[in-house]
Specification:
Strand order of the largest sheet of chain A: 4-3-5-7-1-8-12-11-9-10
Number of domains of chain A: 2
Order of helices and strands of chain C: EHEEHHHEHHEHEHEEEHEHEHHEEEE
CATH topology of the largest domain in chain C: Peroxisomal Thiolase, Chain A, domain 1
Number of domains of chain C: 2
Structural class of chain A: alpha/beta
Strand content of chain C: 15-25%
CATH superfamily of the largest domain in chain A: Thiolase/Chalcone synthase
Helix content of chain C: 25-40%
Radius of gyration of chain A: 19 Å
CATH architecture of the largest domain in chain A: 3-Layer(aba) Sandwich
Strand order of the largest sheet of chain C: 5-4-6-8-1-9-15-14-10-11
Chains: A alpha/beta (345), B mainly alpha (89), C alpha/beta (398)
Largest sheet of chain C: 10 strands, mixed
Radius of gyration of chain C: 19 Å
CATH class of the largest domain in chain A: Alpha Beta
Number of helices of chain C: 12
Oligomer: heterotrimer
Structural class of chain C: alpha/beta
Shape of chain C: globular
Order of helices and strands of chain A: EEHHEHHHEHEHEEEHEHEHHEE
Chain lengths: 345, 89, 398
């Protein structure tokens, strides 16, 4: 399948492409919040007022792509947690008001499928519609779903596919309890060289128009795979099989895009297990721009495609031809996205 | 119009804006006779439930039946009339 | 295109702890709706629920006292149903761990079922609870992946009330595309303050036993369930018994309102027609419908309207939510299993609590248990908040 269009709302100024132009923001914080556009320019105020941040960012990143690429055949979203802020606001109401009279808006907004549903309503798109919530593989699963839907159609078909995650005070607390964050303000420019435990939490919405039609495509997503709870040997074996299935060997991969996030406890998956398999490949990182969150591999894909389009200024990296994007979360769920530069094929 | 009535209307409009998160709307933008539903404010059925919660939490008024709600939740005047007559706090 | 065979089913709900117990209840017309015994809420005695009559401790014991302190009720229910399904399909450890075996689950409340623990952890009130890593919607999936050492494709779907119907749909498509040989599909949800208060805030919960398709229906009852099916491609089934086939699937969005279906039932009709198209069937070849039938004014009216539009003569239909309540993410898979039972045993179960049928329509739901009915193809519908509509067609293995 092919990437025909893409958009990102992230802690960098991606929404207006100044990030790509070389203006990388330095953020010194214990969490990296999104740099959001003025939504009132394209979301009706009557709708915007109800949206929690996840839905707002998702609509903000999805609607422009839908409008630029209509008609689309369906909407497929990956989000581990959806509108967690609304969700826990509602839970807090349950506890604080002892299950009394509660407001439904937080409830309706908090379900992870609220974004795909509202995108469908706002664009009256009655096509295929699905939301994947499989933790840090939710975006990879959305891609695999899209691949299946596109493969069933002989006609030119296109889907809006995206991922969204928000930082709420609540999930920040929960993940801090679980030992996932550094907790201290950390500059994103030194995040990847940090020696302390944990990472910095980020957020964002990243959307793509994916199609089975190669005309004017920016890149081709050749294949996607994933595994949960592998041993190092199983992961290595899986990578070889994955490449074989796509008629590639390790030398064909000229770029590996890795999810290093400044948490030294888990970097061995990137540095010791995967990197040595690709001795001839260059390495790209992306979490120093946006922090870590469960569906952040969508930003990894965005960054890779923008590189392939030569949109990333001030880079010494070569333009990728065959890139393998690898991300894991907690060392538990591991996802791989194989991307090919369309212009080079 | 008495000052207390005016103060109550203003207070209610502020609650309305807060509970419904009406973006870029100020109390003075809301006309007392303007229909809340089907008018410029663009409120819908979910908002009517939010208004029932507002009346409960701020004024101790319980509206059990949504059909009764439809008679009361017409415009700012009808609601403030109802609050004056039925408030328990 | 290879046929997608069903070789194992497992389910637990308010009407039984195994598929067979639940079939007995369907035949006897015995619902599982009542006040809650185990679920703690101010509504426990006020509303009706479809509660699984087991405490968390009893559930934990039934699944074999697993060495995992952070299993929530959602996970325990899921594991219970999963075990039954894979046992019936005779999947050994090697098969379960094959890269050619997938697992697609679904849940709406997921790991957020213990409201009070979550409240404390999320608001930084106390030291972390044992569930601090279990709150994600996909936690139960991960628990099963770990316990059963699954190494292939895994997914969790949340399209609200149509979640596990979409798990079935995706599983069928993965087999069809040759990506997997077999896949375990379904979902689990347990009663939780989160969903009960959420549906209550929308004013659609009934204080009575829910009465889908009754003229005076006044809302739904929330239920809890776990339900899984083992799907295998025909060429690898061997001499294992085939329980039936999934022959059609369709997914569409109503694109109308976050929590209500359009009057003209656009999404439901698109999904039903897409499923017929995949199955290569005409509407008049459908012999039975397991309706979404929640018992709300809106759903049953618009679903009936869709039947009227789709069928010249509406086939026998029921809502098995009149037995189990609305089990949310589990409903699609649970009702697919009940549909399969009708096809396997060539019998129809009555729709319960219907006193007066909806006057706008000439058809009415199944009134009494019927044996020896010729059933070849059946439709099972699931419609969710967010406009997510899915229709499945199951076919008998005769």
């Amino acid at each position: 399948m092919f990437v025909k269009d893409l958009y990102a709302i992230s802690p960098q100024s991606t929404f207006n492409l100044t990030f790509e132009a070389g203006e990388v923001l330095e953020i010194v914080a214990d969490r990296y919040l999104s740099h959001e556009p003025n939504y009132l320019e394209f979301i009706p105020a009557g709708q915007l007022r109800r949206m929690g941040k996840a839905v707002r960012m998702g609509i903000g990143a999805g609607l422009p792509l839908i409008q630029r690429n209509e008609p689309l055949d369906g909407i497929i979203i990956g989000s581990a947690n959806g509108g967690l802020e609304d969700c826990i606001k509602f839970l807090n109401q349950i506890v604080d008001y002892e299950e009394g009279v509660l407001t439904p808006t937080n409830f309706v907004q908090s379900t992870p499928n609220a974004l795909a549903g509202q995108l469908a309503i706002l664009s009256t798109n009655s096509g295929y519609n699905c939301t994947h919530t499989n933790g840090s593989l939710a975006f990879e699963n959305a891609l695999i779903d899209t691949q299946l839907q596109l493969s069933q159609s002989a006609d030119s078909t296109a889907f809006l596919v995206g991922a969204v995650e928000e930082i709420s005070e609540y999930n920040y607390n929960i993940d801090t309890h679980a030992g996932r964050y550094k907790g201290e303000a950390t500059s994103n420019s030194s995040l990847l060289s940090s020696k302390t435990d944990g990472t910095i939490c980020g957020e964002g919405a990243t959307t793509f128009v994916l199609t089975n039609n190669s005309t004017d495509a920016y890149a081709e997503i050749v294949d996607v795979t994933q595994i949960t709870c592998p041993t190092k040997e199983e992961l290595t074996e899986m990578i070889h099989v994955f490449l074989q299935e796509n008629n590639l060997n390790t030398e064909d991969i000229d770029t590996i895009v890795l999810g290093n996030n400044g948490d030294g406890r888990l970097d061995f998956w990137y540095n010791d297990v995967v990197t040595p398999l690709f001795p001839t490949a260059q390495t790209l990182h992306y979490k120093q721009f946006v922090g870590n969150y469960r569906t952040v591999s969508a930003f990894g894909l965005y960054f890779t495609v923008q590189h392939m389009r030569r949109l990333i200024a001030n880079t010494s990296q070569k333009r990728p031809k065959n890139a393998l994007i690898y991300n894991h979360f907690d060392g538990v769920r591991h996802g791989f996205i194989l991307v090919k530069n369309s212009a080079e094929s | 119009m008495s000052d207390t009535r005016g103060a109550l209307e203003l207070e209610f409009k502020n609650h309305l804006i807060k509970y419904l998160n009406l973006l870029e709307v100020k109390p003075e933008d809301i006309n007392n006779e303007e229909p809340l539903f089907g008018g410029d404010l663009g409120l819908d059925s979910i908002d009517s439930v939010e208004l029932i919660v507002l009346l409960d939490r701020e004024y101790g008024i319980k509206i059990k039946n949504p059909t009764d709600g439809r008679q009361i939740l017409v415009n700012v005047n009808t609601i403030v009339d109802y609050i004056e007559a039925n408030r328990t706090k | 295109m290879e046929k997608v065979c069903i070789t194992g089913i497992g389910a637990i709900s308010a009407i039984g702890f195994s598929v067979n117990e639940q079939i007995d209840a369907l035949r006897a017309g015995r619902n599982g709706l009542g006040h809650a015994k185990h679920f703690q809420s101010v509504y426990a005695q006020q509303l009706h629920f479809g509660e699984i009559d087991l405490s968390d401790e009893a559930l934990r014991e039934r699944v074999g006292n697993l060495e995992a302190p952070d299993l929530t009720r959602t996970s325990l229910i899921a594991i219970h149903a999963f075990q039954e399904a894979v046992n019936q399909a005779q999947l050994d450890q090697e098969t379960l761990s094959s890269r050619r075996t997938g697992f697609i689950s679904s849940s709406t409340v997921g790991g957020m079922c213990y409201t009070d623990h979550l409240y404390n952890d999320a608001n930084n009130k106390e030291t972390a609870s044992q569930f601090v890593k279990s709150y994600e919607g996909s936690d139960h999936t991960l628990q099963i992946v770990r316990l059963f050492n699954i190494k292939g494709f895994t997914d969790t779907i949340n399209t609200a009330c149509s979640s596990s119907a979409n798990a079935i749909l995706l599983g069928c498509q993965l087999i069809n595309a040759g990506k997997l040989d077999r896949v375990i599909v379904g979902g689990a949800d347990c009663l939780a303050k989160y969903t009960v208060n959420g549906f209550n805030s929308l004013r659609i919960l009934s204080e009575n036993q829910c009465a889908p398709f009754d003229a005076n229906r006044d809302g739904l009852n929330l239920g809890e369930a776990g339900a899984y099916l083992v799907l295998e491609k025909a060429s690898i089934v061997g001499d294992k018994p085939i329980l039936g086939y999934v022959s059609g699937w369709g997914n569409a969005n109503d694109a109308f309102h976050p929590s209500a279906t359009s009057d003209e039932a656009r999404g439901p009709l698109l999904a039903m027609n897409a499923a017929l198209n995949v199955a290569g069937l005409q509407a008049n070849e459908i012999d039975y419908i397991n309706a979404h039938g929640t018992g709300t004014q809106n759903n049953d009216q618009t679903e009936s309207f869709a039947f009227q539009q789709l069928f010249d003569k509406v086939p026998p239909y029921n809502s098995t939510k009149s037995y189990t309540g609305h089990t949310l993410a589990a409903a699609g898979a649970l009702e697919a299993i009940f549909t399969l039972s009708s096809l396997m045993h060539q019998e129809l179960y009555p729709s319960l609590q219907v006193k007066e049928t909806i006057s706008d329509f000439e058809f009415q739901p199944i009134k009494s248990f019927q044996k020896g009915v010729a059933l070849k193809h059946a439709q099972s519908n699931s419609f969710g908040f967010g406009g997510n509509c899915t229709s499945l067609i199951l076919s008998a293995c005769l």
